[in-house]
Amino acid sequence: MRPLLLGVCAALFFAVSFVLNRRMELSGGSWAWSASLRYLFTLPFLMAIVAGRRRLKPLLLVMAERPATWLLWGTVGFGLFYAPLCYAAAYAPGWLTAGTWQITIISGSLLAPLFGQWMTGPKGPIYIRGRIPIRGLGMSLIILAGVALLQIEHAQHLAMTQILLGVLPVLVASMAYPLGNRKMMELCGDRLDVFQRILGMTLASLPFWLLLGIYGLADVGLPSPGQVGQSVIVAISSGVIATVLFFRATDMVRGSMSGLAAVEATQSLEVLFALVGEMLILSSSGPSLLSWAGIAVIILGMILHSLFSQRSGTTASTGPRMKSRISPPSA
């Protein structure tokens, strides 16, 4: 249950991004600055945390082993995740962006065959490739059905341009985030903790954010003081607190694809948190009866995911035990 609780808390802090990014867009801020400032402001906080724990040097040594790989998956996991979300906020309300983002629940499950583990069994080391958790995927579809109900009434009032520009970038982000996260878990193994891995990915994606900041400067000039202030809030809430909570939760279930799917499913609650946030901050209208039905379906899907995850963990504990390895054995 602890990984799921951490996932729920992460969803709460992640929802701040959807609400404040939309607010910055409505006030005339640039999506490029919203994206780049979050990570530029996140960097010093993470540096202070990792350096304070005396784990900065080990991180830099690990990154120096495969810098190109860090650059690639750091940019995919952070750059191609957050920049499209900020771009979508320029064309769609926060609730629509948060709702479409829930496709990451399915995206994360579908990526399972791309990953695997070396296991030490009775006949020696073997490589076990991940499998798509079919039952967990079915429960994810229940959650997505609830998200669809939550949005049906609102989507009817949007132009096709808003739908496409507000949806397609989020689809890209929904694949990039779990792909980058899992690739980095596979690369790091047990050598780095959550804080080190997040800082490493932030450092690796820094060239992307600097280029995006240059684009924002050329497009609209310097960001306004209001956008800078709100970006600091997003950096602390989503860039530090939410990311640490979510990565910690995925680390706790890294050996179970059904567990990973359950943790990633907790992010569906971002829709609810974003909806409440927009009602309080942006004075948006409350949900209709149909939307409340969608909320009920989402909660049902979350409960089923939790029960399935617990049952899978119990079953796994009674089976044959094998020692997990992150990297292949040496010849």
From TrEMBL:
<keyword id="KW-1133">Transmembrane helix</keyword>
<protein>
    <submittedName>
        <fullName>Multidrug resistance efflux transporter family protein</fullName>
    </submittedName>
</protein>
<keyword id="KW-0812">Transmembrane</keyword>
<dbReference type="Pfam" id="PF13536">
    <property type="entry name" value="EmrE"/>
</dbReference>
<feature type="transmembrane region" description="Helical">
    <location>
        <begin position="198"/>
        <end position="218"/>
    </location>
</feature>
<feature type="region of interest" description="Disordered">
    <location>
        <begin position="312"/>
        <end position="331"/>
    </location>
</feature>
<feature type="transmembrane region" description="Helical">
    <location>
        <begin position="31"/>
        <end position="50"/>
    </location>
</feature>
<feature type="transmembrane region" description="Helical">
    <location>
        <begin position="98"/>
        <end position="120"/>
    </location>
</feature>
<feature type="transmembrane region" description="Helical">
    <location>
        <begin position="158"/>
        <end position="177"/>
    </location>
</feature>
<feature type="transmembrane region" description="Helical">
    <location>
        <begin position="230"/>
        <end position="247"/>
    </location>
</feature>
<dbReference type="InterPro" id="IPR032713">
    <property type="entry name" value="EmrE"/>
</dbReference>
<feature type="transmembrane region" description="Helical">
    <location>
        <begin position="132"/>
        <end position="152"/>
    </location>
</feature>
<feature type="transmembrane region" description="Helical">
    <location>
        <begin position="289"/>
        <end position="308"/>
    </location>
</feature>
<keyword id="KW-0472">Membrane</keyword>
<feature type="transmembrane region" description="Helical">
    <location>
        <begin position="70"/>
        <end position="92"/>
    </location>
</feature>
<feature type="transmembrane region" description="Helical">
    <location>
        <begin position="259"/>
        <end position="283"/>
    </location>
</feature>
